[in-house]
């Protein structure tokens, strides 16, 4: 992690920050380094970067919880916007590849029951709130089970216990539950 304090890395970070089409102040040196310093006892910093030759063309700031081991974006809940910093050419190629793969992927509906575990606290816009987009996958039935937390906290304590109980119930009773 010491490399993020080196002058050459910081200069490239600043240049990338200024070149990126998707930057926010929550990816700036001052915010990221301050957040890493303030949460260093709880989180281990992870900096992922892409190089083209010796030039940094993409940066992503993450952190791993030291005891629970889950990985989050640096800034966690204090930073509303997360994402990578990238030079426009690199960013647009990656986005194009993602969208091409998404457009080429064809979902084949199955005659199955799908159990969806939905976060009770929705913090992001959901375009299809009833089945969360799963209706086109399971044509037999979609069963939605609401669990505590939001999409960021439903797998963390204490919410994960609620999720675990509901998942275990579905697994234990799968043959008995027909609707």
Q: Taking all residues together, what is the mean pLDDT?
A: 80
Biggest sheet details: 4 strands, antiparallel
Q: List how many beta strands DSSP finds.
A: 6
What gross morphology would you assign?
Answer: globular
Q: Structural class of the secondary elements?
A: alpha+beta
Number of helices: 4
Percent of sequence in beta strands: 15-25%
Description:
The chain is of the alpha+beta class and 179 residues long. The chain folds into two domains: 101 residues, no CATH class; 60 residues, no CATH class. Helix content is 30%, strand content 22%. It contains four helices and six strands. Strands 1, 2, 3 and 4 form a four-stranded antiparallel beta sheet that branches. The protein has a two-stranded parallel sheet with strand order 5-6. Strand 1 and strand 2 form a beta hairpin. It is globular and about 65 Å long. The termini are far apart. The mean pLDDT is 80.
Give the SSE layout.
Elements: H1 7-19, H2 29-38, E1 43-52, E2 55-65, E3 71-73, E4 85-86, H3 88-104, E5 113-119, E6 141-147, H4 159-172
Parallel strand pairs: 5-6
Antiparallel strand pairs: 1-2, 2-3, 2-4
What's the quick description here?
Helices cover 30% and strands 22% of the residues. The protein is of the alpha+beta class and 179 residues long. The strands form two sheets. Strands 1, 2, 3 and 4 form a four-stranded antiparallel β-sheet that branches.
């Amino acid at each position: 992690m010491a490399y993020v304090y080196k002058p050459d890395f910081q200069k490239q970070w600043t240049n990338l920050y200024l070149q990126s089409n998707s930057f926010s102040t929550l990816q700036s040196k001052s915010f990221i380094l301050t957040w890493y310093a303030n949460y260093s006892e709880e989180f281990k910093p992870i900096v992922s970067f892409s190089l083209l030759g010796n030039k940094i063309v993409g940066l992503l700031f993450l952190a791993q919880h030291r005891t629970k081991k889950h990985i989050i974006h640096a800034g966690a809940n204090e930073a509303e916007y997360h994402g990578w910093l990238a030079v426009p050419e690199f960013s647009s190629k990656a986005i194009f590849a993602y969208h091409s793969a998404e457009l080429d992927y064809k979902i084949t509906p199955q005659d199955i029951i799908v159990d969806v575990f939905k976060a009770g606290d929705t913090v992001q816009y959901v375009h299809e709130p009833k089945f969360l987009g799963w209706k086109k996958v399971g044509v037999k039935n979609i069963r939605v089970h609401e669990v505590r937390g939001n999409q960021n906290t439903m797998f963390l304590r204490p919410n994960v216990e609620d999720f675990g109980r509901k998942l275990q119930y579905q697994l234990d009773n799968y043959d008995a539950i027909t609707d």
